[in-house]
Design a protein that fits this description.
Blueprint lengths: L8 E4 L4 E3 L7 E7 L4 H16 L5 E7 L7 H10 L4 E4 L9 H4 L7 E5 L5 E5 L1 H11 L6
């Protein structure tokens, strides 16, 4: 919290590459999750409700799947079955030799970050707690 995140470039579920810096100038809800993670799947209903209440011109939602060891098959299936919103990316090894989750010290999933338009992390916590903080403190970003 309080720091600007290093950029990354990851592939989406449709094969496009996206950089974190592509979204500068907007708020970002960055959710680290795994298709294999029970608590991550339990937070999905809250994430879906949050997506329905935000102004998507102001906040971009990005999911980053971590530790997907089957070539992304379960990740893609989960996105489809759960109808996950926003941009969905899969973590990969970066130039540093580490994955994005490693570079951001994500030690457990689910973990979400809320990032301001300048790239500074405002909140870091369980996605439900980050959503509550946004709803309580950034009402102007909601519909």
């Amino acid at each position: 919290v309080g720091h600007v995140l290093k950029d990354f470039c990851l592939k989406s579920n449709v094969g496009e590459e996206h950089s974190l810096y592509d979204f500068r100038g907007r708020y970002i809800f960055l959710d680290f999750w795994g298709s294999w993670c029970g608590p991550c799947m339990e937070s999905v209903p809250n994430i879906l409700k949050f997506h329905d209440m935000i102004d998507t011109d102001s906040i971009v939602m990005i999911g980053v799947a971590v530790s997907e060891h089957d070539g992304g098959k379960a990740w893609r299936r989960t996105i489809e079955e759960k109808n996950l919103p926003g941009l969905q990316l899969i973590d990969s090894i970066q130039e540093s030799g580490m994955g994005v989750a490693d570079n951001y010290a994500i030690n457990a999933v689910p973990t979400a970050l809320f990032i301001d338009p300048n790239g500074v992390v405002i909140y870091r916590d369980h996605p439900v707690d980050v959503i509550d903080s946004i709803k309580n403190n950034y009402t102007e970003l909601l519909k």
